[in-house]
Amino acid sequence: MKKIVLLVLLTLITLTTSFGAFSAEELSMTALTLTTNADGSQEYSVTLQILIFMTALSFIPAAVIMMTSFTRIVVVMAILRQAFGLQQTPSNQVIIGLTLFMTLFIMTPVYNQIDESAIQPYLAEQLTSVEAINIGKVPLRAFMLEQTRLKDLDTLASMAGLEAVDQPTDLPMTVIIPAFIISELKTAFQIGFILFIPFLIIDLVVASILMAMGMMMLSPMIVSLPFKLMLFVLVDGWNLVIGTIATSYGMGG
User: Fold this and answer.
1) What is the Cα gyration radius of the chain?
2) What are the backbone angles phi and psi of residue 149, rounded to the nearest 5°?
3) Which of 1, 38, 85, 156 is most buried, with most CB under 10 Å away?
4) DSSP assignment of 102-161
5) Contacting residues for 49 by C-beta, under 8 A, at least 6 apart
6) pTM
7) Degrees (nearest 5) of the Cα angle 155, 156, 157?
8) Per-residue pLDDT tens over the stretch 137-189
């Protein structure tokens, strides 16, 4: 037992001595550097870029939800399911999956612009990482501003003390993003209201008929559900809903 303790102590002393033999320069994190170019721009080392990217991965879901068409689509789908009177059909997985692919479909032109103007030049080492980010956010900002109401922009800009801005593109992303989200929610509720009206009429008609027949114990929701499904299928509802959402973003115009 004493031999084992002595061996452990000798190992610790050896390791301490070995670490102490390195100079401060050799132990410094030279890979995590920030270089300032002659023109005043700054460039991060590759290791630091990877570190920033790995940290940003936790914000990617929020960016996908809040800076794309995801919010409008998922809210419309949730309202449509509620209008049917169904709680779990289509399931959440189906709604989220359809929303993700619809978001990919709608955002493809924006991604192509970002890829052409920022990603490919950066991969070809024609742009620095900072320049690529600044150029890449231009198409995304244009997309959000196109879908954002001026009233929402004015409200948030005045709250931030940015009333003297000449044009919306001069506003920071911290103002544009929440204004875009508010506008998306309002548009989604407008579309949801239009979708809800036909199903509400069917519910009222069925409830009135059952009440006139004295069938108080029978739930109107159960009786009206087949008629709502039949109406939705006959008018090719999914095609109309998806087409309306895509058209609201200027697709197919």
Assistant:
1) 29
2) -80, 145
3) 156
4) HHHHHHHHHHHHHIIIIIHHHHTTSS-HHHHHHHHHHHHHHHHHHTS-HHHHHHHHHHTT
5) 129
6) 0.71
7) 95
8) 888 888 888 888 888 888 888 887 777 777 777 788 888 888 999 999 999 99
